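Form P-L/3: holo structure prediction, ligand iron/sulfur cluster.
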Amino acid sequence: MKLDPKIPSGPLEEKWNRHKNEINLVSPNNKRKHHIIVVGTGLAGASAAASLAELGYNVSAFCIQDSGRRAHSIAAQGGINAAKNYQNDGDSVWRLFYDTIKGGDYRSREANVYRLAENSNNIIDQAVAQGVPFGREYGGLLDNRSFGGAQVSRTFYSRGQTGQQLLLGAYQAMMKEVHSGKIKYFPRHEMLDLVVVDGKARGIISRDLVSGEVMKFQADAVVLCTGGYGNVFYLSTNAKNSNVTAAWRCHKRGAAFANPCFVQIHPTCIPVSGDYQSKLTLMSESLRNDGRVWVPKKKGDKRPPNEIPEDERYYYLEERYPSFGNLVPRDVASRNAKMVTDDGMGVGSSGLAVYLDFRDAIKRDGEDVIRAKYGNLFDMYQNITDENPYKTPMRIFPAVHYTMGGLWVDYNLMSNIPGLFVAGEANFSDHGANRLGASALMQGLSDGYFIVPYTIGDYLAGNEVPKISTDHDAFKEAESTASGQLDKLLAVKGDKTIIEFHRELGKIMWDKVGISRSKEGLESAVKEIRKLRDEFWQNVRVPGEKNYYNKYLEFAARVADYFELAELMALDALDRNESCGCHLRDEYQTEEGEAIRNDKDYSYVSAWEYLGVNGKLETKIHKEPLEFEFVELKQRSYK
Amino acid sequence: MSTMTIKLKIWRQKNSHDPGHFEDYKLDDVNEHMSFLEMLDVLNENLIKEGTDPVEFDYDCREGICGSCNLVINGRAHGPKHMTAVCQLHMREYNNGDTIVIEPPRAAAFPVIKDLVVDRSAFDRIIEAGGYVSVKTGAAPEANLIPVPQDTSNIAFDYATCIGCGACVAACPNSSASLFTGAKIAHLNSLPQGQPERDKRTIAMVNQMEKEGFGDCSNFAECEAVCPVGISIASIAEMRKDYVKAIF
Ligand SMILES: Cc1cc2nc3c(=O)[nH]c(=O)nc-3n(C[C@H](O)[C@H](O)[C@H](O)COP(=O)(O)OP(=O)(O)OC[C@H]3O[C@@H](n4cnc5c(N)ncnc54)[C@H](O)[C@@H]3O)c2cc1C
Ligand code: SF4
Ligand code: FES
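OUTPUT (holo model):
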């Protein structure tokens, strides 16, 4: 396996422009002759599909939900970063780049991250022109808020529904092209395999989720925008249909999977309430602008929060990180929440929660101001917990939220399978070992609007993609593999439900491949995952049939893939004998619990090659060294 | 923590040709903190263990934002709680021994696929007809070039926040899609960016709505009452006003 990141030479600020000037173009006449498949209609997929169609390509867009507008991106709350410097607080492309590289704990590529920061401003322009109603100041200009890991205000927002508004903008742009006939639209479809012919990605196998039919689709290139794999933990803030299946099946066809163990655990989520829990709800990071995080100083203090006097409260983030306070990056906030609850200072019935308190902000600004900023989040909290956060502090706890890892891509966002591009959360690209808040929306849209539409042209102009029919053996083989797996799942007819298996797998992952990891824990996780996977294939009960709508069959196939991915995540975490960003190895931390990075030995992207599953996952690591020419590697400090 | 026994009457329908029927179920140990959909998950776990087909229903985010969920509960779209999508409804709204009737949203333009799952692709086609501002990627001017008064932006947001669930259609005696369509028209038509295509958009979307077989609006306002995000029927007035302006 050859992994060439293809980073253009030259000064950081000139790389992307120069690259755009140098790459091959496809003439308008020829664009019409090309067909591109875009899988996923979240921010990355919808923006890519719309932009490619506008350029003149023929596009087919697939998604699982009944409408492209319902992709998981819709749920993003807090905002999107851009280096506009509208606040005149000293922001710049360089600063956004620097914050993102540092926030990711120096485990991402400089060139990619710089390009992301450069594109950020165009995204805001594009969204505003589409009619996205961002928050504005009285004078009618755009407003900003602050997010973790930055000392400037650069986050654009639409109340607590930024993802919804940005996605609707991209979805509408996509639907316009559906109307014009440039995009063929396949909602309620699930990609089950990638078809590779002569070493190039030439199509997909997808199941029509209504009729149940497994179908073949050919193309000149495939763009995978299928989101992240946080649901491997069963409980996460991801939507229920978020999954790894499309990415994993590409991995099985030869695409390298990069940094699988880099998982972001978001510090502010509503705690678990019972076994029936089906997902976790995020409370946006923007709340940390005004909310103060604390626990009682006394272990096991059961008094109601409002009765705990000021001097008996431990504002641990403010005390330990005076310069960033409650706005430390997510990994730091989550790890500290775990530390105080491990020490017995947690609150709520389970002891697995900390307070996020708005008392002082309400005193300072008044309830109306706080309501105007966060009203919908407060309502959501009250709806779920039956407690009023204007009166009593929120109880929050970390939850799995985002996956920095994903399919390996080069600077052009192409995987190591020529013709397979990967955009949005599905790739491993820009966030290193930790993603800063409000930068996933930015990345999805940067990839989809401003990168893939150019780089795909370069690929198509520079490569032969001969006509191909779906009668080709590779299509038949992939179709029968996908279809056969569904039959196999239905045939087990065991005693345990899919959700029972998934929950058990999630527990192993949370306990041993979660906020903190140790060699011992990871080794035992690997064994437990293997054992449970074997049991799954012998004892799972999948109801219904293959040839019509069957949600549980969809889930079963996704859980089957999680069982393989889970092992890879544990192996990757074992390989990385350092702590960085969200990856905290117990063995590598300071006495105060700060991560100790090892740049000498681990300054690389781990890119795994799939070799098979035979009781155990057969896999091989490849290393893409990370070279830092423009920033100096420092131990991160938010003190 | 108290638990309850709940009786359920659920619409079961194998496919669009099956006439469909109600089926009775009983569920013990329902926890008050469970969400309504988690209660259905538990029912389905029981059904799967018994060897019966689980009940199909649509959902994704379970946070009230994607608009996938759309059950009609005891005759009311999204259930009893004001401005709450069914995925955000919790069992604490119910009492021990209650009977809950669950149906799909019924409308000629929303054919049933299976059980509680319906086909809402008509909504996509309404947006496709004109629910956008035509701006090619890369062609946008600097964002702060056109200031938008804060009030205007807030009003646009209030309309733009429609989640496309279809509860308005289910609640309307005429199965009208006016609230959904009006919300998108009012969102885009209220902004400076939406002006150039205003007339074209309004006519195209209204025509598409009719073509899909949704009924007319007779001002019952049932839609507004069930809308989980509080879209105002003022949007329908805006749509009508703009439609009249556009055709004359
Ligand atoms: C609750 C929450 C709040 C967040 N808030 C913020 C925020 O404030 N700011 C920020 O920057 N980021 C935020 N994020 C992160 C951000 O929303 C996501 O990372 C981002 O939206 C992912 O976009 P995407 O386009 O890559 O994928 P997604 O939006 O996940 O879309 C995936 C698409 O792929 C489709 N798909 C998946 N598998 C298949 C398959 N096999 N076949 C066919 N289609 C498939 C799906 O149907 C869907 O259309 C938040 C995330 C969550 C969970
Ligand atoms: S207007 Fe309200 S009820 Fe109708 S689709 Fe939109 S959110 Fe749902
Ligand atoms: S499941 Fe997304 S709105 Fe209810």
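COMMENT: The longest strand of chain A covers residues 604-614.
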